[in-house]
Amino acid sequence: MVRTTVSGRFTHGRPGPDDVTAHLVHVLTAKFVHHVIDGMCGGIAVSQEMYKDCPLDKFWLAVQQVKTVAHDIALGKLSKEKVISWLLPLGQEKAEQIYEIVMARKGELVDALLRESLKNTHHLKDFDWNVRLAIASDKVLDLNECLLTLHLHTSPKNMKGTKDLCVEMTATQADSLLNQLKDAQKVLAELPPE
After folding, report:
1. Are 147 and 166 in contact (CB under 8 A)?
2. Of 149, 181, 179, 147, whose CA–CA distance to 166 is shortest?
């Protein structure tokens, strides 16, 4: 995502709050921010019907801005100071209120973003492996190194077909991969069920 600065404000590559302040001050309420976050977390999203006096284009711009800020705060990409300065045209109190709401629901947002990223992953269906001893190479006369060849057979979630991946690694690389997989398993075990 391209990030630009307009008049010294962080704008996420979109128009900053200066461009829409007049229409958004009354839209960006605590209830509005909670509704946007509900939609991001899989609940019922905010509807323009609730804010009929706000023009449709300004409403959707506000939704997108809240989503962007919430996403970046949840991932740790934005500090409190940066968020407050970006939302300052809405007023100091409203900017801090929006930040506090997002921070209060950060855990929910992180879980939702993780679930979303896992939807497009491939799942391991089967694997084959073999170990070879490399005695020498064209550059090293006395190598004596074990190499693991791992053939992974994966398929996209809820889809047919498979994708095969072949990886060759040293014993050190294999140990590192196992440690990463154990860490990933711990994180997945802590996720709430879908």
Report:
1. no
2. 149
